[in-house]
Structure formats: C-alpha cells, structure tokens
Amino acid sequence: MGPSLFEARLAGDRKGPGGCGCRHAVEMRADGFGPAPTAPDEQVGRERRATQEQGRLERDMRKLRRAKQVLEECGSDSHTENVRIRAKQAQLRALVRENGDLVKRERHRERVYSKARAGNLTPYEVRRVGEETARTAAKAEAIRASFIYAGGRQYHVKKHLIERMEERGIKRDDIVDAIENPVVVRDRKIDPEGRASVQRVGKEATVVVNPDSNAVVSCWKTGKKALRRAMNERNGD
Prior knowledge:
This protein is α+β, with helices and mostly antiparallel strands. The protein is about 50% helix and about 15% strand. The chain has helices spanning about 5-10, 40-75, 80-100, 115, 125-145, 160-170, 170-180, 225-235; strands at about 145-150, 155, 185, 190, 195-200, 205-210, 215-220. Strands 1, 2, 3, 4, 5, 6 and 7 form a seven-stranded mixed beta sheet that branches. Helix 2 packs antiparallel against helix 3 (about 80-100). It starts with a helix and ends with a helix.
C-alpha cells in the first residue's frame, strides 16, 4: 500500500499530489454521511479540453514571442509575429470568457523569461541555449532573406529569383530600386498556367513581380538598349 495523500504532500514530491500543476482539493468527510462528491463526466471532459486548449495557446504565444525577439535582434520586421500574437491573445480571451468557471488567464505563462533565467543556467543548459539561439538566428536570417521590403510593402522572394541573382550578379539593392523607382512598369500579362506577372524596368535590373501573390519571381540586368527603350516608353516616344 502506497503513502497516504498527506504523507505524499509532506514528502514534498513535486510530481505527486500537491506538487507542480496539481489541482486536487482536500476536503474533510466522514464515511456514511452522504455520497462522496463527484463531478459529472461532461464537466470533467469540458475542463480537460479547456485546459489543454489554454496550454496550447500559451505555448504558441511563447514561441511567437521568441521568434519576435530574434527578428528584432537581427533588425528584421516583426509585424507578422505581432499580428499572430494578438490573434492568439484574442482566442485565449474568448476561451476564458466561455469557460470562466473552469479556467482563468495566467499571464505569466504567456511570457518569455529567457533573460530572467540567464544567470541561473547550468553549463549544459548554457550550451543548449547557445545552440538553440544560433539555430533560431539562422532561421531568422533565412526568413529575412526570403523577403524584400520596398516601397513600404513586403515582397516574397522565390528560389528562382535567388538563383538568377547569383547567376547574373544582381544585387539586392538593384531589385529594391527597380521596385521603388522603375523607369517603366509594363502591362500585366498572364502565362498559359494562369499566373499573372508585371515587369518593372529599373536602371540596373528588370524584375518580374506576381501582383497576385506579391512575389518577385525573376530578374535580369537592364542593358543599355533595354534602358533606352524603357525611357522612350515612359516619354511616349
């Protein structure tokens, strides 16, 4: 026979009754005086689903906040993460509002405490945190490289574009300049697969943008003849 509830609580077992995350309640009751109080199965199931959903939303918010920190440290835009964090907060508020008798919002479980814990890590944890930070920073750099910000808008960068930039010696600034300050913007075209494209001719490079997906799909250097032709188009010659 195992220890009683009171023995387990006195032992200080963090995983047992009364430990971390324990939600048991202790009540005094004498045998023979009324039935033992039990919660309906429906209520137990509803509470389990509500607490699991709450935990999932809290984990998602911590993950998004860590991503936001890394993006800001790399000097990248974190607007998308802010929008997603607010969406998760709205979902959590709705969950608490619908199940107020079962769950309550615990804001400390939504936050990231990496700075507060930094001085209390073991050497193994320091090594692990360093590795994870390096991997996260690499992911953030890859995310930053997969977008181009020009003219106050965010453009997706396709793999084909990166390959053409490397192959043809085109700089990222040339792409931005063609988007922000084009010599001429040609009419929208539709290819046989139904994909739209618009050419924006810049002084150094010509880029092809899909206006539907807001993606830059290809580029090439703007030659002298092509630039002269584009200037004539702009001037109506």
